[in-house]
Amino acid sequence: MHFDHPYILLLMILAPLPFLRLRPWVLFNFSSFLILPQNNLARKTVFASKIFSMGVIICLVLALSGPVYKAKEILRIEEGAQIVFVRDVSSSMFTKQEDEEGSVLNIDIASKLIKDFVYLRPGDEYALVDFGSAVVTRSGFLSDKKEFTSILFAPTTDLSGTVIDQALMRAISFFESTESINSRAIILLSDGVGRLDGVEDMVYWFSRVNVNFWWVFIGDENNWKTSDDMFGFINKYSLVGNAKAFRANNNLEIAEVINNIRSLESGIIRRPVEGSNHLLAPLLFKTAFALLCLLGIFVLFGLMVRKRKDG
C-alpha cells in the first residue's frame, strides 16, 4: 500500500485532540465539588464520544493522504505462440509503390500484413519493435489483439536510417533460453536496405533462444536482389535454425508465411497478471461519516441525559 499525498499524514498528530482535558475545575477550584456523586453513564458517553471523534480525525487524515492498495501480482500460465514483429520505419518505407489497390506506402503494406498475421491464430502473444536510425519498442508481449493493432496503427515517426542489427537484437531480448520448440518467431518487415553487422553474434543468440526468423521483404525488386547482408544472415542461421525470406508482393510466398505462422506450436506462456489498484479513500470517507453519525447520536444522548438530570 502507498499514499499519493504522504505529507498529509503529519496531521495525524491531531488524533489525540479530543482527549485533551480542558480541566474546568481550575476556574472553580472548590473542594466541595469532590463530594458530588459521579454520573458513570455521562462519563462513559463522553469517553465514547472522544473515541468516535478521534476515529473521525484518523479516517479523514488517511483519506486525504490518498491511500492505494495494490493487489498481489499473480502468474497465469497459458499455452500459445510468441511472435515479435520488427517493422522498418526508415525513410525508404515511406515511399509509395503500386499494388492492386493503387499507390500505397511501404509502411502501410507492412502494417496491414502484421494485422493479418495477428488474426490468424487465437491465444498467442505479440510484440512490436520499430526501427530506423534508432530502435523503439512499441509494445511488449500482448495477447489482446485489439490493443496490439491500436498500437500498430498509431502515428509512426520517420526514423531516417536503418539499423537492422540493433532491432533484431532487441527482438531477441524478448525471449529466454529454452529447449527446442517451434513456438517462437521473429518476423522482420523491411525493404532490406540498412546496416546488418555482427552476423555471427546474431546467429549465436538466435539459436540460443530457438526462434524462427522470417523476413518479409517490402519494396523495390532491385533492393531484394542486392540485400546480400540479409541473405547472408538467413543462410547462416538456416544451418542451425529456421530462417527464410519472402516477398510481400508474391502471394504464394505470403501464403507460405501464413502457413508457417499457423503451424507454430503452443508453448507455455507465463503471463503476469497485475493486481488492480484499490483506492481506499472512498471507504475511509464513508467510515468517517459513519463515525460522525455515531458521534452525533452520543452527543444527543448525552444532552438528553443532562436534560433529564436537570429536570
Helix share bin? 25-40%
CATH architecture of the largest domain: 3-Layer(aba) Sandwich
Q: What is the distance, rounded to the nearest whole angstrom, between the alpha carbons of the first and last residues?
A: 53 Å
* Secondary-structure element order, N to C: EHEEEEEHEEHHEHEHHEHEEH
Give the number of DSSP strands: 13
CATH topology of the largest domain: Rossmann fold
Mean pLDDT: 81
Number of helices: 9
The spatial strand order of the largest sheet comes to: 8-7-4-9-10-11
What is the 3D form? elongated
Mind describing the biggest β-sheet?
6 strands, mixed
Oligomeric state of shown chains: single chain
CATH class of the largest domain: Alpha Beta
Low-confidence stretches: none
Rg over alpha carbons: 35 Å
What portion of residues belong to β-strands?
Answer: 15-25%
How many structural domains? 2
Quickly give the structural class: alpha/beta
CATH H level, superfamily name of the largest domain:
von Willebrand factor, type A domain
Can you walk me through this structure?
The protein is α/β, with parallel strands linked by helices and 311 residues long. It folds into 2 domains: 2-26 and 38-71 and 276-310; 75-272, Rossmann fold (3-Layer(aba) Sandwich), CATH 3.40.50.410. It contains 9 helices and 13 strands. The chain has helices at residues 40-64, 106-118, 145-152, 164-172, 199-209, 221-225, 228-237, 251-262, 281-310; strands at residues 2-3, 67-70, 74-80, 82-88, 96-99, 102-105, 125-131, 135-142, 184-190, 212-217, 243-247, 267-273, 277-279. The strands form 4 sheets. Strands 8-7-4-9-10-11 form a 6-stranded mixed beta sheet, sandwiched between helices. A 3-stranded antiparallel beta sheet has the order 1-2-13. A two-stranded antiparallel sheet has the order 3-12. The protein is elongated. The model has no long low-confidence stretch (mean pLDDT 81).
